[in-house]
Amino acid sequence: MIAAQAKLVYHLNKYYNEKCQARKAAIAKTIREVCKVVSDVLKEVEVQEPRFISSLNEIDSRFEGLEVISPTEFEVVLYLNQMGVFNFVDDGSLPGCAVLKLSDGRKRSMSLWVEFITASGYLSARKIRSRFQTLVAQAVDKCSYRDVVKMVADTSEVKLRIRDRYIVQITPAFKCTGIWPRSAAHWPLPHIPWPGPNRVAEVKAEGFNLLSKECYSLSGKQSSAESDAWVLQFAEAENRLLLGGCRKKCLSVLKTLRDRHLELPGQPLNNYHMKTLVSYECEKHPRESDWDESCLGDRLNGILLQLISCLQCRRCPHYFLPNLDLFQGKPHTALENAAKQTWRLAREILTNPKSLEKL
C-alpha cells in the first residue's frame, strides 16, 4: 500500500514539474501579453473618465486583481474608489449578492458616483457597468492596440477579445476590508479545527470584493432591483486559505488535468470549481500532516471523487456561500459528461499512476 502511494506521489511530482510548470509558464507569458493591451485600454478610459482609475498593477510578478479562468480566458477586477458613503447590505435574499445603499443622512451629492444611485438610494452595479462598457468601447477604438482588440458583443459584461485568441472580462468592483459578510457568518464551522484562529483572522482581514457582473443565481430572471446588486467574490481570502503543505501543488495538478481533459462542451468545469473543492478537502483533512507532500496522491484522489459526486448531484456549493450553487445554469448533459470523463481520469490515475506521463 505504502509502495503504491509512493509510486503515485512520484508520478504526480513528475507531472507537476513537467506539465504543470509548463502550463504556468505559458499562462504567465499570455498574461504579460494580455495585460499590456488591457492596461492600454484602461489608460484611455481614465483619460475620458478619471473615476475609473486603472488598478492593474504588477506586484511581485503578479498582476493585482487578475484571475485566470482558463488558459485563454481571464478576468481583471478594476477597483473603484470611495465606497464610503454606502452601507453594505446582504440579507440573504439574493444568494451570492449584496447591495450598496446610501447611508442615512448622507446626500447623494456627497458620492463620487452620484448619477448611478437609484431613486431608492442604491448604487446600481448595472448602471456603473453600462457606463464603463461605453467608455471601454470608445477606448478600444482609440488605443494603440486597436488592430488586435475588439469588444465582445451581445453581453452586458465588459469583455475584450484579444488577437482572436483570448477573452478578458474587465469587472468594476469595490474592495471591502475590515468587514465580513453576514451570508458567510457561519464560517469557520465550529466543529472543524481547520484553518485555526490565526489563519481565520488573516482571511477575514483580507475581506472580499463586490463585483459589477451578472450573478450566477439570477441569470435569466433579473428584476431591476436585482440587476442593481453586486456579486460577492473572495479571491484573496481563498488564496490565503490554500497556503502551506501541498495544497497549491494539488490545485495546480487539478487545473492542468482540467485544461487537458475536462474542457468540455457546455463548459461544465472551470478552475474555480477546482479551487472550491480543494478548500472543502482542507476541511475534511484538517491536520497539517494531511497535506504533507507524501499525501498528495490521497488528497488528489479525494478531490476527484468529490468532484464526481458533485457532478452527479448537479450541485457544487460555493465555499463561503453554500447557498450559492456553482453549477447553476450548467446543462445537465454537460455535467453528466464531465462526471464520466472525471471518473475515467480518476480510475486511470489510481490504477496506473504511470499513465500520468500521457495525461
TrEMBL record:
GO terms for molecular function: metal ion binding; nucleotide binding; nucleotidyltransferase activity. It is found in: Nucleus. Pfam families: Mab-21, Mab-21_C. InterPro entries: Mab-21-like_nuc_Trfase, Mab-21_HhH/H2TH-like, MAB21L/cGLR. GO terms for cellular component: nucleus. The keyword Cytoplasm does not apply. Belongs to the mab-21 family. One of its GO terms (biological process) is eye development. Residues 246-343 form the Mab-21-like HhH/H2TH-like domain. It comes from Chiloscyllium punctatum (Brownbanded bambooshark). Residues 63-243 form the Mab-21-like nucleotidyltransferase domain. Monomer. Homodecamer; composed of 2 back to back homopentamers. The protein may exist as monomer in solution and oiligomerizes upon ligand binding. Keywords: Developmental protein, Magnesium, Metal-binding, Nucleotide-binding, Nucleotidyltransferase, Nucleus, Transferase. Its main location: nucleus. Transmembrane segments: none annotated. This is Putative nucleotidyltransferase MAB21L1.
